Amino acid sequence: MDSRKQKILEAVVLDYIETAEPVGSRTISKKYNLGVSSATIRNEMADLEEMGLIEQPHTSAGRVPSEAGYRYYVDYLMAQSDIQQEAQQMISHALQDKQQKVGDVLRDSMKLLAEVTNCTTVMVLDENRGAALQLLQLLLVEPGKALMVIVMEGDKIENHFLEIPKSMTKEDLELVSAMMNQNLRGLKVDDWQRSMLETIFQDLTRQRQVVDRALEMLSSILDIRNKDKKIYLDGGLNMLSQPEFQDVNKVKTLLHSLEQQEVLSQLMEADNETGITVKIGAETGLDEVKDCSVIVANYKVKGKTVGKVGLIGPTRMDYATAVSMLNTMAQTLEEAYPDKE
Amino acid sequence: MDSRKQKILEAVVLDYIETAEPVGSRTISKKYNLGVSSATIRNEMADLEEMGLIEQPHTSAGRVPSEAGYRYYVDYLMAQSDIQQEAQQMISHALQDKQQKVGDVLRDSMKLLAEVTNCTTVMVLDENRGAALQLLQLLLVEPGKALMVIVMEGDKIENHFLEIPKSMTKEDLELVSAMMNQNLRGLKVDDWQRSMLETIFQDLTRQRQVVDRALEMLSSILDIRNKDKKIYLDGGLNMLSQPEFQDVNKVKTLLHSLEQQEVLSQLMEADNETGITVKIGAETGLDEVKDCSVIVANYKVKGKTVGKVGLIGPTRMDYATAVSMLNTMAQTLEEAYPDKE
DNA sequence: GTTAGCACTCGACATGATAGAGTGCTAACA
DNA sequence: TGTTAGCACTCTATCATGTCGAGTGCTAAC
After folding, report:
1. Phi, psi for A13 (deg, rounded to 5)
2. pTM over 0.85
3. What nucleotides of chain D have any atom within 7 angstroms of a protein Cβ?
4. Is the CB of B311 under 7 A from strand C?
5. What is the pLDDT of residue A106?
């Protein structure tokens, strides 16, 4: 793969990203001054096609990058543009207003990202299974009914109602709460184990029933945690502006897919080690979104991945800008919120 | 307006709802046996057109109901079909599984409704401003940080973090909580008044600061409540199957509008007295959804409206079925959950 | 190795012809 | 007087046809 072929491939990709029209040899020779005539470019393009990097929608149309072509572009040609700076500025400006809630900032960032890239943004917050318990408290709401309040590190709150024996008093609950707090505070959810929990509380005979209920509740929280990642989506409609989504049926299928958590989860699967993962078309492994690409950035805190930010767009998306933006966004967030989820 | 004209108008509406194609005189005379020839029907249709109840997309096309036509149909002709029974069965069957959370049932019902009618369903839960406070508790999370847990009648829970002086102990918070509970429990949010609150707590000097924060928080809750209705949406993509929404731009505008709370709020505005409100096309007062109609049902508990369930579809929607379904749904919900929100 | 030139292919678009659905009007009928 | 059959007319949808232009591949010359 000589340097001229690379330049031509890059030209095809860039022009197609810009115009969404198949790009011909003449266009390239005129617009991107490679110093050779269109005929030469034609020859090279024939080679590129043979290599599977570009393809023709039909004879006598221009060329369009194949998925392999995008792949090559992303891996070897794409310049981490100076958009980076601009993005940096924009994002940190947007995040300036720090007095808002953490959740709101994340949402706003996603919205911003979606607007700028004209793609759909996804955020997956892995439940902090590694987070420690900060506070566990049982409150008497009315006779026979208690509320269990759980506060996790990172200010995550969960509430669950509990049925309890009517005879239980506020003081009983207080006792159980104190006991649980004493034993569980600072422990990570991952480290909870039913058997362990049970031994801890075996001498609380009078409050036996409450303890049982509470433990049941806690176990089910453990179960839910594993499945129930929090997924936020923004800009779901953005892609409708793209010329490749002018067909309503296509749109319907796509949007429908994006409403399904499993689909999003799979899309957002990414190697936790690398910073940014780009999946092009079929690489997503999902037929429903075969005309789309996904860019996923891990969002780390203290070196540990706690969530992911993703960008979903047409295969013909502006990878350079998207990657830049996403990178910047993840970094900025990490710097701004080193100790929050 | 003689009975034959009515029958013809009804035929036009029904046929157009079914086929989405302009309906001609011949079709009517063949399909709906009114005992007269197509020529007669033509004459009648000319009259109906003059009256503004039907219109022609262009010369030599069939007729299509105008908005006024739909209105007339809904007001005078529409039969509350026997779908009612079927719906009843279906809905109560779906709601059988009562052990789920209240919120889930509502969601499921909406999903069902959306599927069956192929429309978008909306649910607005007016915040229970009339609900009474059940429990208010301050919990010490860590030094300098407290969590305020509020439980309202109807099992609504709210959590808010509060910054407090580091010197505050668990016992201080317990004292404030007890005080607040004692004074506020059973009171309706509407009845809280800052001035009143302040006099109650004026002798808690040591905890002054916490009380202040808490009161601030409570006030802001009051403010939020007024604006922040909870709105749920389901089947947002359903309308894409309708032939009138084959144009992507139209779809984009529409879906975008439906993402905006204000739009939904306005759409769902309805006379609280009457059970069901039907707004056809321009009657919604919103240009963004001018090709849509909205049917809103009030959802009452103990005779008081606590929420609304709505159905958004194309003007050419099946009003009879929709109204039946919605009616049944609201009734079933009321019966099933007389004392929950 | 590069380029100019040329024949060829194919889609986009405009044009025109045709069929069919539906109307309005008129005259005849009960 | 209301109803109906018949007919001319209108308009759209559809298909075949022709033309244009963009783009290609190939060949021969540089």
Report:
1. -60, -50
2. no
3. 3-6, 9-12, 21-27
4. no
5. 75
